[in-house]
Amino acid sequence: MRELFLETVVLTDQAGTVRCFDYFILIGEMDVGPYSCESYGIKVAEQGGGQACVENITCSASRIDELCGLLVRSRVTPAGLEDVVSDWL
Questions:
Q1: In the β-sheet with 18-32, what is the strand arrangement from edge to edge?
Q2: Among 4, 26, 73, 88, which one is most buried in terms of CB atoms within 10 A?
Q3: Chain centre distance of CA 9
């Protein structure tokens, strides 16, 4: 699986601590019947902290681009990634 870096978002939490989150597109392969196709997922990682990944979300480059834009604009952290992706699907 390959990772394509998208963007870093800097947030200040309620305690006043600055936190940085990196967003990535995950590029892998998914079996679809007798053949394989390129599939896309998402990874959100806090610099110096935890991370969350959701693989094989879609085979559509435009759909993963749409989801990435939503995640970055909404400043989704690793803790909320699975819920947001689930709602988006």
A1: 2-12, 18-32, 35-46, 51-58
A2: 26
A3: 13
Contacts of 28-36 with C-beta under 8 Å, sequence gap 24+, read: 28/1, 28/2, 28/55, 28/56, 30/56, 30/59, 32/59
18-32/2-12 β-pairing: antiparallel
Q: Tally the residues of the chain.
A: 89
Instruction: Say what the pTM is.
Output: 0.89
Separation of first and last alpha carbons in the chain: 22
Q: Which tokens sit at 62?
A: 């435009």
Query: 63, 42 in Cβ contact below 8 A?
Result: no
